[in-house]
Amino acid sequence: MASLLTDSLNFLSKATPRRVWNTAQVLGGYALSKLTGKAQHWGLPVALSFEPTTSCNLRCPECPSGLRSFTRPTGMLPDELFRKTIDEVAARLWYLIFYFQGEPYLHPNFLELVNYASRKGIYTATSTNAHYLNDSNARRTVESGLDRLIISLDGTTQEVYEQYRVGGKINKVLEGTRNLIRWRKELKSSTPRVVFQFLVVRPNEHQMEDARQLAREMGVDDVWFKTAQIYDYQNGSPLIPTIDYYSRYENTGNGTWQIKNRLRNHCWKMWHSCVVTWDGLVVPCCFDKDAEYRLGDLQAQTFRQLWHGTQYRDFRASLLKGRDQIEMCRNCTQGTKVWG
User: Fold this and answer.
1) Distance of CA 134 to CAs 130, 166, 182, Å?
2) Which parts of the chain fold into alpha helices (H)?
3) pLDDT tens-digit profile of 106-123?
4) How far apart, in whole angstroms, are the C-alpha atoms of residue 314 and residue 311?
5) What single DSSP character describes residue 76?
6) What are the tens digits of pLDDT across the range 93-103?
7) What is the pTM of this model?
8) CA dist., res. 240 & res. 154, Å (int)
9) Residue 161 DSSP label
């Protein structure tokens, strides 16, 4: 609880008059759009996701990076593209997520880019499988100014962990976590807030309490239990957990499965945030993993041009007319309410 309060105060400390006004503009446009059914949008994103790379060292079964199933190319985010975009939006941007697909620490200048955003007063977060948190990287992570570090912990024993994190080593995850916690203490830093993220699937659901205990023993600040997105869920899957609360899917009773979420014709994410791929494509959200719904290209446009451009406006309008008509949205359990 104390770490959550510290993290919340840290997030609020990033507030500036421009960021607060921008948030009010975005909220106002979203509320008016829902009310009228016509897409209205003001301001710039409150949050932004940047993809450092599509490369990954693991082969997780429900991840395009792990499956090597992308149709788009694999590569590394150019430093200059990142800096140019951040320079354009930094005055209004509150929250930067350094993650989409791939393992961020494989980018050779990842922590330098984190520091660039941090020095502009933006709250920064990333997600990692923690296999590259050696002593040097752990220290540099703390020194970079990163505000939140999410570590994937999908099992507390190697036998269970490797069933989803294929090719991964649980001892590397725990060693990297210890390195990070140690350097945070040595450097007397309150950041980054360290979170274990536990993707609940059937093979690991019996270890949820073990994950909580492990976090307490290691000094990890929190544990988040997350539902898993499963692509071929219609006929069931061995990954769907038996604990109903942590399943995105429900059994219809006739041998098929369906998403619990009832899609509504609006989506907060389309108004307050977006995702930038490593090569500068802007896509609506993290569900568009293969960049099918490309709304602009930062190699050819400024961010402001595409954010208020015809393609984005038309996409927001299509959501208000029929979100269930957009293929990407059909496997989505998010985006139906503000901040959700």
Assistant:
1) 9, 20, 12
2) 2-12, 17-36, 64-67, 79-89, 110-118, 135-144, 158-164, 170-186, 208-218, 269-272, 303-307, 310-322
3) 999 999 999 999 999 999
4) 5
5) B
6) 999 999 999 99
7) 0.92
8) 14
9) H
